[in-house]
Design goal:
This protein is α+β, with helices and mostly antiparallel strands. The protein contains 25 helices and 17 strands. The chain folds into 3 domains: 213 residues, 4-Layer Sandwich (Glutamine Phosphoribosylpyrophosphate, subunit 1, domain 1); 315 residues, HUPs (Rossmann fold); 69 residues, no CATH class. Strand 6 and strand 7 form a beta hairpin. Helix 7 runs antiparallel to helix 18, helix 7 packs across helix 19 and helix 10 packs across helix 11.
Length: 638
């Protein structure tokens, strides 16, 4: 697990000392991703650097950038391939001489022998840059689900690329917000899942499951090497539909157990994020069956029973026989950490509980735990969002009834709904323009994905069932993306690697064709996972209402409600948002804090990433830092 940064000169001239200095600066900004080692190599027009967080083979043999045995290829690699031993044995049998015992060299030599086709055989999370000196080609690659990030941009006659956006931004010729991307962010609160767009003009992200081949003459070749829709298997769906419940539960449990077993492979201590919810509880219980020297980490929110899952986390840890480390997230810790987490996340913070994830990672690192397991992906794959999955099915079933309502009554209901939410209602036929406007904001990418997902499940006769299954694919590609960014940036920000067992491709492919009844059951969401958990945990734990890591956000943000934090700031001066508009958004804080938090997230992002202000200074100016600090300020590299 590491970070990478590099550049390719587009004039074909050899990279020089100035180019190396540029890469060194980029690496300094992501030093938290790799505190154990650092390296920079020049090869023709390429300059490539890496910082290393040593997880497998802690010896100097894992140094990066790494050259293959022939000296032709150079690799900077961020991630883990969990089943690398299988490929390693194959390479040794084929006569490849290996100098290390980790996965980096295995990936490098497998690519040298088989090319990008070998990506389909890699089980893990990764983003990497591979330079082929003989062919004068740079290959940028990102894993199936976008767990590991990779950004790139052109600046000063060079193509720059790095693991995090913050590494690139200071090297750009100009820093300009993309207005279309900003509008999309306001609507969806994320830009991670679909397409290449970021909030900055000229800066792109490599989409999940894609590779990009570049040459010094500026030519490029793009390939989507993985698409979950290609994995939709009608025969497997029919088999699962005909399988008794116990058989389905057993098959899912086997796949999840094997995924967890693979993700325990490490040469450093491993722990688990344990919220006390179903997903993290299940990961903890199954992990403890394979490895007892684990530690569980929990964040407690001291705001009453509605926010406190500590008793459930304690119960799981006790039944697993492993220690539980608890850290408290009170208003002071939340506000003091917010500006630093805004710096870590690269894009405006989507989820307020990002601070909690960072505190968990810091707590783990302080105790020598370098790898954590999490439950990310379970909700998207197994029907954990009742408001989404059940709504899709109900809308399909109720659509014929709605069409029978007289048009004037539909108009009146729509007008009332819009008016209650403060939306414009005076334009003639206003409602007809909204779907087109929403589709335009993201350039139709979400509508296209939804249509492709529906088509992939055309073999499913029931329209409601089809809507739920297609929605699962959409959630996996889109809704999950900002959660993965949160997880990557907050854990790597504390120099900790986080692994997601629910995103093993074999488990994902099983879940995608799992009939909706095993996900959104008559009496429970995530039905199949709850059947696994109930064998070990009491019913009151398994079937309780989903909490989803809540925070008393209105109370935490109350000091910002007067609006002084936004005077002469980014949203006012750069984006031109009026004081009245800012106050109107802040006025919704008591009943709906997510609008004000979005405003704050954008303000933090603009000041820190666009204006280049120090996060601690920004936190102080916005009133986030309190007089009694609980931790020393973080000094950021230039």
């Amino acid at each position: 697990m590491c970070g990478l940064a590099g550049l390719l000169r587009l004039d074909g001239r050899p990279a020089d000392a100035a180019d190396q200095a540029c890469v060194a600066r980029m690496l300094a900004r992501i030093a938290h991703r790799g505190p154990d080692d650092r390296g920079i190599e020049r090869d023709g027009p390429l300059c490539l650097g890496a910082v290393r967080l040593a997880i497998l083979d802690l010896s100097p043999a894992g140094h990066m950038p790494m050259r293959d045995g022939a000296g032709r290829r150079l690799l900077a690699y961020n991630g883990e391939v969990y089943d690398f031993e299988r490929l390693r044995r194959e390479l040794l049998a084929q006569g490849t001489a290996l100098r290390s015992h980790g996965d980096t060299e295995v990936v490098l030599e497998a690519l040298a022998r088989h090319g990008p086709q070998v990506l389909a055989r890699l089980t893990g999370m990764f983003a990497f840059a591979l330079w082929d000196a003989a062919a004068q080609e740079l290959l940028l690659v990102r894993d199936r689900f976008g767990v590991k990030p990779l950004y790139y941009a052109r600046a000063g006659g060079r193509l720059l690329f790095a693991s995090e956006l913050k590494a690139l931004v200071p090297e750009l010729d100009r820093r300009e917000v993309d207005p279309g991307a900003l509008a999309e962010w306001w609507l969806y609160r994320q830009l991670d899942g679909l397409g290449e767009r970021t909030l900055l003009r000229g800066v792109a992200q490599l989409p999940a499951g894609c590779w990009l081949r570049l040459r010094p003459d500026g030519s490029r070749e793009f390939c989507r090497w993985y698409d979950p829709l290609r994995e939709i298997d009608p025969e497997r769906y029919q088999r699962l539909a005909a399988t008794p419940p116990d058989g389905v539960v057993a098959e899912v449990e086997r796949a999840l157990t094997e995924s967890i077993r693979l993700r325990l492979v490490a040469d450093v201590p491993v722990g688990v994020m344990l919220s006390g919810g179903l997903d993290s509880s299940l990961v903890t219980l199954l992990a403890a069956r394979h490895q007892q020297d684990l530690t569980a980490f929990h964040i407690q929110v001291p705001a009453g029973p509605a926010f406190d899952e500590r008793p459930y986390a304690e119960e799981v840890a006790r039944r697993s026989g492993i220690p539980l480390v608890v850290r408290t997230l009170d208003p002071a810790v939340f506000r003091q950490g917010l500006a630093h987490v805004a710096w870590l996340e690269d894009l405006p913070i989507t989820h307020p509980n990002s601070v909690a994830y960072y505190e968990i990672a810091r707590s783990a690192r302080a105790r020598g735990v370098i790898v954590l397991l999490s439950g990310e992906g379970a909700d998207e794959l197994f029907g954990g969002y009742a408001w989404s999955h059940r709504r899709r099915r109900r809308l399909v079933r109720l659509a014929p009834l709605f069409r029978r309502i007289p048009p004037r009554l539909r108009d009146a209901l729509t007008l009332f709904t819009y008016g209650m939410e403060g939306l414009p209602v005076t334009a003639h036929r206003f409602r007809d323009a909204l779907p087109a406007a929403v589709t335009t904001l993201d350039r139709g990418l979400r509508a296209e994905l939804a249509a492709r997902a529906e088509a992939a499940f055309a073999f499913v006769a029931d329209a409601g069932e089809r809507a739920v299954l297609a929605g699962t694919v959409c959630d996996l590609a889109d809704f999950l993306a900002p959660l993965l960014r949160r997880l990557d940036r907050t854990t790597m920000g504390a120099s900790v690697e986080c692994r997601e067992p629910f995103l093993d491709p074999r488990l994902v492919h099983l879940a995608l064709v799992l009939p909706a009844a095993w996900k959104v059951g008559r009496r429970a969401d995530k039905w199949v996972l709850k059947q696994i958990a109930r064998r070990t945990l009491p019913r009151r734990h398994v079937f309780r209402r989903k909490m989803g890591f809540p925070l008393p956000l209105a109370d935490y943000l109350a000091p910002l409600a007067d609006g002084r934090a936004f005077v002469d700031g980014f949203v006012a001066d750069t984006l031109g948002l009026s004081r009245t508009a800012i106050q109107q958004i802040l006025a919704t804080l008591p009943r709906s804090p997510h609008g004000p938090f979005g405003l704050l997230a954008l303000e933090l992002w603009g000041r820190i990433h666009l204006a280049g202000e120090d996060p601690d200074m920004v936190g102080s100016r916005l009133g986030l830092m309190e007089a009694t600090r609980t931790k020393s300020p973080v000094r950021l590299p230039a």
